[in-house]
Specification:
Helices cover 39% and strands 20% of the residues. It is α/β, with parallel strands linked by helices. The chain has two domains: 3-116 and 235-267, Rossmann fold (3-Layer(aba) Sandwich); 118-233 and 268-295, Rossmann fold (3-Layer(aba) Sandwich), CATH 3.40.50.2300. α1 packs parallel to α10 (236-251) and α2 crosses α3. The protein is elongated and about 55 Å long. The termini are far apart. The mean pLDDT is 96.
């Protein structure tokens, strides 16, 4: 019975639906967890400094493969081993991150899914503008560990005539302080930048924003289901289906370096009309018509 490692920067609870899709995809390929496969689970709960030791633990456990969710987990796994196959999800260019040599021919011991997190910034802000209108100043909440996103955010905002005010947080106390500052600034809206640390705190951020009557944009639907106004991003269930398929191919003998890095095929635009009503916002009908999910 092979054993694989599952290493993720987010929490077990926050990734439960992704894990379910991943396990089912493996089972459909003949690798059922607990019967024909064993999985060692490691979740960093948004504390990225834990990933290095977790990756080392999986290598010491002599797993047959490591699934690494997010850039941070992928980099930790890549540092921990050059021999054990790695299937990653990466928000940045995996070539730029030096996870692979190229998209079509990864070489080495890693391949995976490039989830295009950063490159979706113009689309997210464009949808936000369609609701809020031109000439706005918005708050941008960003993790300093993901400062590489700053250039893309500012460029996308400038292209639509918006201004941004930046707020940093990588710990709960820093989020609380940032939210106090955002409220004091009197900005028109808040965009929460893509980051696992914020993803697992979506409910907290959404609840605060509703209380303060501040529209929000997130990357994933879960935060909108928890009260956020809008989200635009990849369908994570589809991504982890692809991760499961890739892992199964490697377990059956294919080399990771020969499997091209894939890109997501499904994107989701989700709006929460209950939140819009509380905020006194009216969505243009043509915008509603293109939404993948409307929460009434």
């Amino acid at each position: 019975m092979p054993t694989i490692g599952f290493l993720h920067a987010r929490s077990r609870e926050d990734t439960s639906y992704m894990v379910a899709v991943f396990r089912q995809t493996l089972a459909d390929a003949g690798f059922e967890d607990g019967k024909t496969l064993r999985i060692e689970w490691r979740f960093a709960d948004g504390q990225y400094d834990r990933l290095k030791q977790m990756a080392a633990d999986l290598v010491a456990y002599k797993v047959a493969l490591i699934v690494a969710g997010t850039d941070f987990a992928a980099l930790a796994a890549k540092e921990a081993t050059t021999n054990i196959p790695i299937v990653f999800t990466a928000g940045r260019d995996p070539v730029e991150l030096k996870l692979v040599d190229s998209i079509n021919k990864p070489a080495g011991n890693a391949t995976g899914i490039s989830v295009l997190t950063v490159s979706l910034e113009p689309k997210r802000l464009g949808l936000f503008r369609d609701v809020l209108g031109p000439d706005r100043t918005i708050a941008v909440l960003m993790n300093p560990n993901a400062a590489f996103q700053l250039r893309d955010v500012e460029s996308a905002a400038s292209a639509i005539g918006w201004k941004t005010k930046l707020f940093w947080a990588s710990a709960d106390a820093e989020i609380d302080k940032a939210l106090e500052q955002i409220e004091a600034e009197g900005v028109a809206a808040l965009e929460v930048e893509p980051d696992p640390f914020f993803d697992i705190r979506g409910a907290k951020l959404a609840s605060w924003a509703i209380q303060k009557k501040i529209p929000t944009m997130f990357q994933f639907r879960r935060a909108v289901q928890e009260g956020g106004l809008m989200s635009y991003g990849i369908d994570l269930s589809d991504v982890y289906r692809q991760v499961g398929l890739c892992a199964a191919r490697i377990l059956k003998g294919e080399e990771p370096g020969s499997l091209p890095v894939l890109q997501p095929t499904k994107f989701e635009f989700v709006v929460n009309m209950r939140t819009a009503k509380v905020l006194g916002l009216v969505f243009p009908p043509d915008l509603i018509s293109i939404a993948d999910e409307v929460i009434d």
